[in-house]
Specification:
This protein is about 35% helix and about 20% strand. The protein is of the alpha/beta class. The strands form nine sheets. It has a seven-stranded mixed beta sheet with strand order 5-4-19-18-17-6-7, with helices on one face. A hairpin with an 8-residue loop joins strand 1 and strand 2. The protein is globular, with a radius of gyration of 25 Å. Bound molecules: ligand MGD (2 copies), iron/sulfur cluster and molybdenum atom.
Length: about 725
């Protein structure tokens, strides 16, 4: 007999409702849940990977200990004791900073992991705390902190009510939206056009999103801040600045005008590749629209001037009166508000309060930039990293300097990974503690409900009960915390039993109940259980100035950290302009995503990797011709730090002078246990990206705009002899 379970998919930010049909311990089918008021039946092809991960024979269910190149299963008790003992030894010998922590992307999709992992790992008191934030949204969080007073106060585009959307450095048709939780983005973008509005995409590649937009413009990677200053220049120079309500609670309107005055579109066009005419036309059309919104995302953040660019994207919305207005860039009113909770737990943000030991990059929100991890392991001295905890992250593939990291990980005194797979990173761990699968734990999307284009709430119990010898992420961290804070001895054992009971009372449900009851809608778990398809709590509402957390409850349009960073932009602008004048034929690397990938970890599903290989280098026909490269040729892609050999895909969807390689591949490394992924290995983009290429303001890795060379690999060398 089959039963149907309703929940939201936890694989990306869109939180689509899924209907999972189950027979015994097997998933029979996964379909879109038509009754989900938010996603209305939409799902993408990735949803079925929820079943593939759950049933994956490579997925670990019990702790394993590495013995040379083989792995032995451990009892949980033994594993916990071993991990805590080894970590304590490192700390006792070398101090708290000797234990580094890396938290990866899936953390934010898993309430229990986010709570307990965050509390245990960050309260270890190490300065060497790293996460995917610094290869992702850090510049948005920095802008939230500096402009609105809280790192989590990130506004989202009100996509359902806008009539003019500019998308800069995002490809929501494939990513399904980011810091814009919006199931069926394609439908929602098409609806903008259907109601007479327009969509413009500005991107170095004519993306899938660009294909359904009214207009696409190429922009040279890394130059967005210059483009945005010129956009603002036009708004100010042509008297199109209309902050509306925001005028009463915004500081810096005039100062921003004075800054923008220095960047007329004619002065940036050669560098950005966006003509002065195009900038003027765009800015005028934006200002003339009824309900425009300017949305910037990952491509804007992960570049060498990402801090400035993310700030300026929001500044455009402020000066045109589009912040906190329907159809503009709005703040959410989530049923469980993480902002006060995070503050209560002491995660209240902060920037550059300290700097990394080796290269002096700034801390943000208590974390250091992940590009510094390799050098912090390698460089001797006080504070050198000697042990590592990775949690739901695969930095060997996801952070620049992957090859260096894989050389350094074996030198650590101890490494433990909380992860269901033996992958490119966890293969170096001494112990792996595997959590339950997404279908074995309950789900409430506490993070993404906070970045959702409608206010929604949805809770789902586990589809499958976990086995007695399995542990949830939160249970793993609760156990580690209990043993860490209340170690051994008869008294300790007693106390630790009590502590464990206490920690179990902090199950995700307990925290959720508290959050729901004290939240804006006074919900409860019981109410959510009674609405298995989810609750729609209405469209976004204006929240300012009340929601601001700056001391004087005012929006800061020109924080000093940004204005102090402008000289760095000026220097680069001069260099880019000079190069353009000299007809520089160099190439810059950007990334891309695919609908069936999810960063580095869904490639072990046969359904996700089937079809023609997707790890290819897109090259513009002109650039290909200049190098004698034909479609399908193997090419060597090299940067200052590394190189890979990959098939070329010649395509005019690229801007001339720009090549694109997806990330998350490179599964051919020895010692992993991911059979399907290994057979579809591809190469890692982060073998080529450069840990030394970073936004000095925010510490975010510049994954985009990396200078590279591409050359055809002699067929003899690349192919086995065909005779
Ligand atoms: N060149 C380049 N590099 C990039 C990017 C890019 O665009 N270009 N994008 C960057 C971005 S935006 C991000 S977010 C990062 C992502 O990079 P990471 O944060 O490293 O995330 P993943 O590669 O998805 O690896 C996720 C890991 O978590 C494990 N996992 C999955 N679910 C769970 C769970 O519930 N619990 C636990 N404990 N483990 C789990 C998986 O097995 C896998 O090992 O990559 C970044 N790297
Ligand atoms: N299918 C799928 N969905 C995903 C993921 C996945 O791996 N696969 N990952 C998830 C994660 S972790 C995240 S953070 C989100 C990211 O979601 P998005 O923010 O939509 O990011 P991308 O899809 O990488 O699109 C970034 C775009 O920026 C462009 N770009 C590169 N450099 C520049 C530049 O210098 N300037 C400008 N203007 N554009 C530039 C790229 O060409 C690309 O089209 O996606 C999430 N969703
Ligand atoms: S769009 Fe995201 S949330 Fe929706 S089904 Fe696909 S992976 Fe899951
Ligand atoms: Mo991300």
């Amino acid at each position: 007999m089959t039963t149907t379970h309703y929940r939201s998919c936890s694989l990306c930010e869109a939180t689509c409702g899924v209907a999972i049909e189950v027979d015994g311990d097997q998933v029979v089918s996964i379909r879109g849940d038509d009754a989900d008021p938010f996603s209305r039946g939409y799902i993408c092809p990735k949803a079925t990977a929820l079943a593939d991960v759950h049933h994956d024979p490579d997925r670990l269910k019990r702790p394993v200990l590495r013995e040379g190149s083989s792995w032995r299963e451990l009892e949980w008790d033994e594993a916990f004791d071993l991990v805590v003992r080894r970590l304590r030894d490192v700390r006792a010998a070398h101090g708290p900073d000797a234990i580094a922590v890396v938290q990866g992307n899936p953390t934010v999709h898993n309430l229990g992991l986010m709570m307990h992992g965050q509390v245990f790992l960050r309260k270890l008191g190490t300065k060497n705390a790293f996460s995917a934030t610094s290869v992702d949204q850090l510049p948005h969080m920095l802008a939230a902190l500096l402009m609105f007073g809280d790192q989590l106060l990130m506004p989202v585009p009100d996509i359902d009510r806008t009539d003019h959307m500019i998308v800069l450095g995002g490809n929501p048709l494939v990513s399904n939206g980011s810091i814009m939780t919006a199931p069926d983005v394609k439908g929602r973008l098409k609806a903008i056009r259907a109601r007479g509005g327009t969509v413009t995409v500005i991107d170095p590649r004519r993306t899938e999103t660009a294909e359904i937009a009214d207009r696409h413009l190429f922009i040279r990677p890394g130059t967005d801040a210059a483009f945005l200053l010129s956009f603002l220049h036009v708004l100010y120079a042509e008297n199109l600045v209309r902050p509306g309500r925001a005028r009463t609670y915004t500081d810096g309107l005039e100062e921003l005008g004075a800054i923008a005055a220095k960047y007329p579109p004619e002065a940036t066009a050669a560098a950005t590749g966006v003509s002065a005419d195009d900038v003027r036309t765009l800015a005028r059309a934006f200002a003339a629209a009824q309900r425009p919104v300017f949305y910037g995302r990952l491509g804007v953040c992960t570049q060498e001037l990402g801090g400035l660019a993310a700030w300026l994207c929001w500044a455009v919305n402020v000066v045109t009166g589009r912040l906190d207005e329907p159809g503009g860039l709005m703040f959410t009113t989530p049923a469980v508000d993480l902002i006060p909770l995070a503050r209560r737990l002491g995660f209240d943000g902060g920037h550059a309060r300290w700097r990394s030991r080796v290269s002096g990059l700034p801390e943000f929100g208590g974390e250091l930039p992940i590009v510094t991890l390799p050098e912090e392991i390698e460089t001797p001295g006080r504070g050198q990293v000697r042990a590592l905890i990775t949690s739901a992250g695969n930095p060997v593939l996801s952070a620049p300097g992957g090859p260096r990291l894989e050389q350094l990980l074996p030198t650590l005194d101890f490494m433990v990974s909380v992860d269901p797979y033996i992958n490119e990173t966890t293969r170096f761990a001494h112990v792996i503690l595997p959590p339950t699968s997404p279908l074995e734990h309950s789900h409430y999307d506490v993070a993404f409900a906070g970045f959702s284009v409608r206010n929604v709430a949805k809770y789902a119990p586990p589809v499958f009960e976990r086995g007695p010898d399995q542990r949830h992420d939160w249970e793993i961290y609760a156990e580690l915390a209990a043993r860490w804070y209340l170690p051994g001895g008869p008294l300790g054992a007693l106390a630790s039993r009590a502590a464990r009971t206490a920690l179990r009372a902090l199950a995700p449900e307990a925290v959720l109940e508290l959050g729901l009851r004290t939240g804006s809608y006074r919900l409860s778990l019981a109410k959510l259980r009674a609405a298995p398809h989810g609750l729609d709590l209405g469209p976004l509402e204006p929240r300012l100035p009340g929601r601001l957390n700056t001391r004087d409850k005012r929006v800061k349009l020109t924080p000093a950290a940004y204005t102090a960073d402008l000289p760095r932009l000026d220097r680069r602008l001069a260099e880019w302009t000079a190069r353009a004048a000299a007809g520089d034929g160099g190439l810059l690397l950007v990334g891309r995503r695919h609908l069936r990938s999810c960063n580095s970890w869904l490639h072990n599903s046969a359904r996700m990797v089937k079809g023609k290989p997707r790890c290819t280098l897109l090259v513009h026909p002109q650039d290909a011709a200049a190098r004698g490269i034909a479609d399908g040729d193997p090419v060597r892609l090299a940067s200052r730090v590394g190189e890979v050999t990959v098939p070329a895909e010649v395509s005019d969807e690229m801007m001339p002078g720009v090549v694109s390689l997806p990330h998350g591949w490179g599964h051919g490394r020895p010692g992993t246990r991911t059979q399907v992924a290994s057979a579809h290995a591809g190469v890692s983009a982060n073998d080529v990206t450069d840990a030394g290429f970073v936004d000095l303001l925010s510490g975010t890795a510049a994954l985009t705009g990396v200078e590279v060379t591409v050359e055809r690999v002699a067929a003899v060398a690349a192919l086995p002899s065909a005779s």
